[in-house]
Amino acid sequence: MAAIPAQRESETYNRGAHGHATLPGSPLAPGSARALLRAAFAEWADLGLGDPKGSARLAEDALAVVSELVTNAVVHAGTEVEVDWRLEETGAFVVEVRDHHPTRAPRDPAGGEAPYDIPDHGRGLRMVATLAESWGVTYRAGTKTVWARLPAGGKEDPAGPAPELTLEAAEALAPQPQRPGADRDWLGRGALSFLAEASDLLAGQLDESLVTALTGQLIVPRLADWCAVWLEDEATLRGGDGGAPARVWHASENRIEELSRALEKDPPCPLDGLRSGPETYPWPGDALGPQGAHGTALAYRLIAGGRPLGTLVIGRCGLDRFPDEVTGLIEDLSRRVALAVGAARQYARQVTISAVLQRGLLPGAVAQIPGVSSALVYEPCDKGGPSGDFYDLFPAGDGRWCFAVGDVQGKGPEAAVVIGLARPWLRLLAREGYRVADVLDRLNQLLLDDATEAADAAARALVAAGGRPVFPGDGPQTRFLSLLYGELTPHDDGVRCTLASAGHPLPLLLRPDGEVRTAARPQTLLGVVEDETYTSETVDLRPGDSLLCVTDGVTERRSGPHQFDDGDGLARALSGCAGLSAELIAERIRCLVHDFGGGLPEDDLALLVLQAETG
Q1: Per the confidence metrics, is the pTM higher than 0.85?
Q2: Residue 312: φ, ψ to 5°
Q3: Rg of the chain on CA atoms, in Å
């Protein structure tokens, strides 16, 4: 799985180096942080920075520390995580991990908890305290920073050489003591907390690959030495009839590749029916080396909604059978995994349907107009199905071209119905020769008639089904449409533009000298007022003039209590675009809108620039 994209800065100077990354607050953040530090240490080694003799040990310690600090921030804060690191001139390494939930203190490694209270308190910072020569917490307004300083060459272990770091980290995070009764002790203290933790991690995950990755992290090495997940698609729901496992984990990563090959040759063959398990699974001893020659493995069918989705297999070396407590716990976990996989697949299906529907609601191509340059930006924010924003630019015959930028109240299937009704009718009416104002009059009446017919049909269905009276709010609700619609007629001296705005952000006309003015007057939303009469206005676009048409995703872009168009903000932004091409105007406005909010837009965004060409 690819690492999480991160915003990264890196700078190297005379005898030191530092870097910065911003990571999303998700379970993949620790892995991304490790990858960034691994690359940084490799770069520093190439540049001859640090102590060559101790750089490998320091790098391993640094990877463990940053992993635990980022994990701690993700689990206990859940916000975006900022990571800063630097290699000092002395060769010491300092890392700082900052989250944005300062009211939650980090878990104290010196609290005197019992050694197996991992679900409640964890051991991440205990490892940090072991590897760092000093560490601490700094609070600022809105942020909490946990920092650690590692000595040059890494901290020496008085007990002798450190064990393989990956195994050490795994033991610290999820203890697996090799002594009789260890499973029973841990399960007695932490099973319920473990399931709660697993539910929290899996809940809301919308990517089945991420679900399987989290599954392995939860099980290995806490409950098993290795595990694997097979996922079945719609074409292989008979199950177990081939294919490699989707993911394989082992407590020692150098065993994963060989184990994967062995498991691929012997996929699970669940019994008929919908029994979740466990079922015995052949032990892949040859793939696990001498110490793994004997052990036991169990297969659990992943079932959700009465449908088999895959199989989970776990294995533990040196056991004749798993303790009943472990098998029961894994069965509970497998149900949660199956539900998460099912939810992720349902979401993926909805995304696919939405994407197909969205493509069907938008024109396949934007018309090229003689003497006019056009540029379009369309960015649906993809919340709740198809976007409520739409656009069109098409030939209407007789030397005319028409354009539309619209926004349906709401989004999803109901908005798609309105767009699917409005856009074809716009084209039909325009090509039948109706002028701008007449098109809006008829589209307004069409929306009202359609809403009335739908409400009447719903009312009849409700009465027929229940024999009860119809109350306000029963049945479908009217969907309002804001629309900017216009007609372009190129001529020798420019372009004549006739347009009207029905409840839509007003279009702005930019002259080559930077002058900006509105090009229409406000009128009522479509689908609201019966027998509303709309009017149009005409402006001449001289060579170099530009017309900007936007949806409220631009004008109402928020930054705290402020909106982008407060104080004519859009007009001021457009004035600064004098002399730019249509494409550059569209890109600059898009960038300004994105930068204004400081995050991803929370509404659909559409803008169209039409520019009369010079020469």
Answers
A1: no
A2: -110, 130
A3: 31
